[in-house]
Specification:
Layout (H helix, E strand, L loop, with lengths): L3 H13 L7 E3 L3 E3 L3 H19 L3 E2 L1 H10 L3 H8 L3 E10 L2 E10 L4 E9 L5 H14 L30 E16 L8 E12 L2 E12 L10 E14 L6 E23 L2 E23 L7 E11 L3 E6 L5 E7 L2 E10 L1
Length: 348
């Protein structure tokens, strides 16, 4: 800590060098028996450790100081900075020992997690801030004690804080998702489809509600295949439940997908001894119910990548329109395709 006047400008520069908006705002340290410079150094050390741990954009106390002075509350300051979450830090020096605690909040002020640690002296503060940053980033209580973390004058280990209840709040994400879709129906050949859509997710760490909209197109060309082709636009609304609490978390869920789709097929005909093809189409409102199982590979990162397998069942059928020898389009039945899809998405 004797190097504070030299290190603080360097740490501040490293912290403020991120060009992207902050995901987490670290508020100025509330210190007791500590100078302003010591509090600022502790805050910057913690912000840099949290940025490394979470691999996300972090606003250090040097950056949030002005917003805190202008706003009435820390929550208002975080909103002003556009941060999804914010961290409140407290540091208390008793003799040589410094107790350090942090509380992680959602943007709406809900407490997500809290943890405490200590350092035998200010010289050990870099280790203590790294330990606290790991606990808050992964929402895990600090396990084990450093040899230097003892009750002053006794040599006995200081008691660990009780773990906080598992947090329920979780930031929402907005992103995009693409899919390869294989429709199947008994007795019919249907072209595979590709889709691209907007995808939004919001909820808690235990589950999420998903909503989106996009379009799907058949991959077969109408002149190179006689398969049914299905194209159109769709929306979807559903929910899924996480099967684990880790950063890599599988989930299972389902939902409904209203859509406007067109089915078409190129059917052969003959007239006056010549063979020709007619493109028979049928457009209308459709609806499908789906179930899915997937994995979120980076749930605790700013960019969340996920993949899923989905099975959808159309509950409003497609009419099979065929042009007869008199060049009149007639229906030969209705079919209800089942769609198997492999989907990949990313959200922020």
């Amino acid at each position: 800590m004797r190097l504070i006047p030299i290190l603080l400008p360097v740490l501040t520069l490293l912290s403020s060098a991120q060009a992207q908006p902050a995901v987490v705002a670290v508020m100025p340290v509330q210190g007791v028996n500590l100078t302003e410079g010591q509090c600022e150094a502790i805050g910057v050390l913690f912000a840099n450790a949290l940025a490394r741990e979470a691999n996300a954009a972090i606003a250090s106390p040097i950056e949030t100081k002005q917003a805190v002075q202008q706003a009435k509350t820390l929550q208002a300051a975080a909103t002003q900075l556009g941060a999804a979450e914010y961290v409140e830090l407290r540091a208390i020096q008793l003799g040589a020992k410094v107790a350090l605690g942090g509380i992680r909040y959602a943007r709406d002020g809900r407490e997500l997690f809290r943890a405490e640690t200590s350092a035998a002296s200010l010289d050990d503060m870099e280790v203590a801030t790294a330990r606290l940053a790991r606990a808050l980033a992964w929402r895990q209580p600090i396990v084990g004690m450093m040899p230097s973390e003892t009750v002053a004058g006794t040599g006995e280990p200081a008691p660990m804080p009780s773990p906080a209840p598992t947090p329920k709040g979780y930031p929402s994400t907005l992103g995009v998702k693409t899919a390869l879709i294989i429709p199947v129906a008994s007795g019919r050949s249907i072209s595979p489809m590709m889709s691209l859509q907007f995808d939004g997710r919001m909820g808690t760490r235990d589950y999420f509600v998903e909503f989106g909209a996009g379009f799907a197109i058949a991959t077969d060309n109408e002149y190179s295949s006689n398969s049914f082709r299905i194209d159109g636009v769709f929306a979807e609304l559903g929910g899924s439940y996480y099967l684990s609490n880790g950063s890599i978390a599988p989930y299972i869920g389902g939902g409904v997908s209203p859509r406007i789709m067109a089915s078409s097929v190129r059917s052969p005909n003959s007239m006056y001894g010549d063979t020709y093809y007619s493109d028979d189409s049928n457009t209308g409102a459709r609806c499908a119910l789906y179930g899915q199982i997937g994995v979120n590979f980076s749930r605790d990162s700013r960019s969340r990548i996920y993949s899923e397998v989905r099975v959808s069942q159309n509950v409003i059928g497609f009419s099979n329109q065929i042009t007869n020898s008199n060049d009149v389009s007639v229906s030969t039945g209705t079919f209800y395709p089942t769609e198997f899809a492999l989907q990949v998405g990313i959200g922020w």
